[in-house]
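Appendix B, Record 12. Input sequence as logged:
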Amino acid sequence: MKVIKFNNNHEMFLYGEDIEQQYLQFSSDMDNFNICDNLIQTYIENKMLYCDVINCLNSISGELSPYAFNQPYSKLKKAINAYLSNLQPFLSAIGKNFDKEALDNITHNVYDNHKEYQFCYELRNVLQHKGFNIHISIENDTKLKIYIDKNELLEDFNIKAKTKELLKSYLEQIELMNELDGFYNAQCEILQKAYLELYDNDAHKRLLDFHIHNADTQFLYVGDYQSGINDEGKETLNVQFLHFDRNKILDNIRFYANSKQLNY
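Logged structural output:
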């Protein structure tokens, strides 16, 4: 990769007999980097929605008075609805670059082994068809409790038999934040398992090595290549450019390393 250099127009030229092989290798490395980077962005977007729920909860906790709940309660409910509704976009974003059967195996395994994921998955279905009430109470004048009434859910004649069976294992007041915390952790597990399947450590190392040896440039290629002969009579490979940041490759490597440390 040290033979790659850039001109003032940010076009890339490759020199040498293995010019097509270099391009194909570079193209494959960039494809893997982009896929992995998209997964990290999916993780960040989902985490932001989850953090919105936590922030709304904290705003309510600061006003331990039933009369002060109206506006914060409305924001909390919207945040919870937005977070639950993001499940399908979350899975679709992962599935864009992941084998469907392999992703189904991961999601089914997580569903079967995480009760909170099961509950929130079914709660999202209730949300789509009817919605549900979120209740707030104060225990011992200090502790805030946010819960869903199990009996209210069971009264919905549209609720699935599978969901009714699941609800039997819950108390009458289902503490919502416990379920959302477990749901978020289960989503992280899905994404991290997919990331470990897709991540190519050698590809990222090659890209990082390329950037180190081309420290003066901030551009990599994207798009189709076109070979030709330059003014010096050398064969060249001319491709378009794409702005890229070395730190994004490092973020991918760190994300991969952290995922490898988790035990499922």
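The chain has a mean pLDDT of 76.
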